């Protein structure tokens, strides 16, 4: 890779999209303020940007300011915005059969299931469709409990599994706290994370061994016969993009096999090309979960869709016993048509390969180069189009740039970084003391380098708060 050299601010956000229309933008913002209740927010403390349009890796506002989207929406527009083949597939499906109940065999639904099953590992050949990732997790844990007849599910701290009742209790970050029932049959444990190791490990081998010992002890003390499932994000996403060390997932698989526990891998964020493989588990040879949840990238979020890929053994449990679960819009024709088109586009246009190449040759090396220059960058980690920068006050002590779950003035350094990123024409994904670099898997080399250059300038704002 050509070394990244610092350039004067080219003001990429002033490259115009369609004709600006500030008056219309003000009307959109006012109506939003009056009637839309936003997720995860104190409503009077936010000012959502009024978005006029998007294309590929970019979106723009009604002022005409264009942003390189380093968030992929919420890490789901894997093929970018407004891909013409997917848009056309949705239009064609709407013209022929816009909707139909889930109890029937519909071409788009059947074909989407076939294409997904062809790409999942092992014998995960049955697909249960949901409307999104949280519902996929809800149904996966329900299947595991019914299959085993056991009540408990083990989930990692530093995880996110969704905002519905079971999924939020499985989540291992502060978003769980207000809704934690304390009686949901969920037990949390520490998964490996060498940079902030709870096991005082000095290298990945130690971290893997100690994390597996910790999980084995947790299973022993909780009672193996009470545990239905262990659920893990194959590569944790919102919690910090922490690829597990070699051997960890294989070790978890062995523990589950030993005790008759179902292994659920959550690939809602990491699946469908995000890590440079169809599924993140493909990086870990020989590991096959019993259930795999997906959403987001399956159709780049063009129409809501998620699901559970089910192993033969668990599918057999419900061969002659009704599965007590379902959704009105399970396998909605428009969503499935979008999935069929998305998967075909990814195959035909080499999108998964592009994510792997740009990640390995441009984004990864570029971020590591930024880390050498900016004292606020404590660690760079990731793969494919799935990267995180751990921002710190002090590299030696690894003190986070802001405290855990910081808000208000305590979060000011991260807020300053985010503002600087936007001022330089990129829309950042910021969570706690991290910024994630997760552009579309279709991002070009020139777009990736422009994003890196903008982050280079924005990190000056974080550096101002270092020791």
Radius of gyration: 22 Å
Summarize the amount of helix as a percent range.
25-40%
Order of SSEs, N→C? HEEEHHHEHEHEHEHEEEHHHEEEHEEEH
Number of helices: 13
- Report the β-strand fraction as a percent range: 15-25%
Q: Please identify the structural class as seen in this structure.
A: alpha/beta
Name the shape in a single word: globular
Strand order of the largest sheet: 4-10-9-8-7-5-6
Poorly predicted regions: 1-14
- Overall pLDDT score: 95
| Gap between N and C termini | 31 Å
Largest sheet at a glance? Answer: 7 strands, mixed
Strand element count: 16
Describe this structure as you would to a colleague.
- The strands form three sheets. This protein has a seven-stranded mixed sheet with strand order 4-10-9-8-7-5-6, sandwiched between helices.
- It has 467 residues and is an alpha/beta fold.
- 37% of the residues lie in helices and 16% in strands.
- The protein starts with 21 loop residues before the first helix and ends with a helix.
- Helix 3 (84-97) packs antiparallel against helix 10 (333-348).
What labels describe this entry?
467 residues; alpha/beta; seven-stranded mixed sheet; five-stranded antiparallel sheet; 16% strand; globular; disordered N terminus
Task: Summarize this entry quickly.
The chain has 467 residues and is α/β, with parallel strands linked by helices. The chain has helices spanning 22-35, 72-75, 84-97, 107-119, 133-148, 165-170, 204-222, 248-259, 312-317, 333-348, 351-373, 412-423, 445-463; strands at 51-55, 58-61, 66-69, 126-130, 152-156, 186-189, 227-233, 262-266, 291-294, 306-310, 377-383, 386-394, 399-400, 426-427, 429-431, 434-437. The chain is 37% helix and 16% strand.
